[in-house]
C-alpha cells in the first residue's frame, strides 16, 4: 500500500505465508507388489535418503501431467494418466506432496537422476531412511494396499 512501510504495518495483522510448493510423487508397484523408491542424490537436500520418485509441479501444469513428465525424466518409463490412482498426501509449511499409485507402465525402469533404485515390500518402506514427509505417504500407501483399495 502506498505510504505504508513495514515499520508502520499493523502488528496484529496476520502474516500470509508464500504459496506452498506442490510436489507429485509415484508409488510404482510391480507385479510382485513391491514399490519402487529412488535414493536422492548425495549432493541434494536429504541426500542419500530413499523417496518416492517425482518432483515439482510447474506453474500452470496439471499435477498428473507433472507426474508423468517427472517419471519419464527420472525413471525413463511412460505412465498413462488413466493408470494413476491418487492415494495420499502429506504437507508441511510451504510444501504439499500428492502421492499416486501406478501398476502399469511402458519401458524399463532405470535410475536416470537418483543415486540408485530399489524395489521394496511396502511393509518395509517405513524402516528406510526417508525425508520426513515420505513416512506418512508410506503409511497411507500401506493402508490402501492392505484394504485392496489400490
UniProtKB/TrEMBL annotation:
Cofactors that this protein relies on: Mg(2+)
Stretches of the chain forming a coiled coil according to its record: none
MF terms in GO: 8-oxo-7,8-dihydrodeoxyguanosine triphosphate pyrophosphatase activity; 8-oxo-7,8-dihydroguanosine triphosphate pyrophosphatase activity; 8-oxo-dGDP phosphatase activity; 8-oxo-GDP phosphatase activity; metal ion binding
Catalytic activity entry: 8-oxo-dGTP + H2O = 8-oxo-dGMP + diphosphate + H(+); 8-oxo-GTP + H2O = 8-oxo-GMP + diphosphate + H(+)
EC number(s) given by UniProt: 3.6.1.55
Record's keyword terms, sorted: DNA damage, DNA repair, DNA replication, Hydrolase, Magnesium, Metal-binding, Mutator protein
Pfam families: NUDIX
A GO BP entry: DNA replication
Domain Nudix hydrolase residue range list: 14-145
Family: Belongs to the Nudix hydrolase family.
Protein name: 8-oxo-dGTP diphosphatase
Organism taxonomic ancestry: Bacteria, Pseudomonadati, Pseudomonadota, Alphaproteobacteria, Sphingomonadales
Amino acid at each position: 500500500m502506498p505510504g505504508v512501510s513495514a515499520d508502520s504495518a499493523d502488528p496484529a495483522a496476520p502474516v500470509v505465508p508464500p504459496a506452498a510448493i506442490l510436489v507429485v510423487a509415484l508409488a510404482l508397484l510391480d507385479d510382485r507388489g513391491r514399490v519402487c523408491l529412488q535414493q536422492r542424490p548425495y549432493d541434494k537436500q536429504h541426500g542419500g535418503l530413499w523417496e518416492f520418485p517425482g518432483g515439482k509441479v510447474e506453474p500452470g501444469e496439471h499435477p498428473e501431467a507433472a507426474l508423468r513428465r517427472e517419471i519419464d525424466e527420472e525413471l525413463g518409463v511412460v505412465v498413462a494418466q488413466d493408470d494413476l490412482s491418487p492415494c495420499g498426501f502429506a504437507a508441511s509449511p510451504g510444501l504439499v506432496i500428492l502421492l499416486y499409485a501406478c501398476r502399469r507402465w511402458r519401458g524399463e525402469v532405470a535410475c536416470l537422476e537418483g543415486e540408485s533404485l530399489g524395489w521394496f515390500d511396502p511393509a518395509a518402506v517405513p524402516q528406510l531412511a526417508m525425508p520426513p514427509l515420505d513416512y506418512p505417504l508410506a503409511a497411507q500407501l500401506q493402508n490402501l494396499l492392505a484394504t485392496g483399495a489400490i
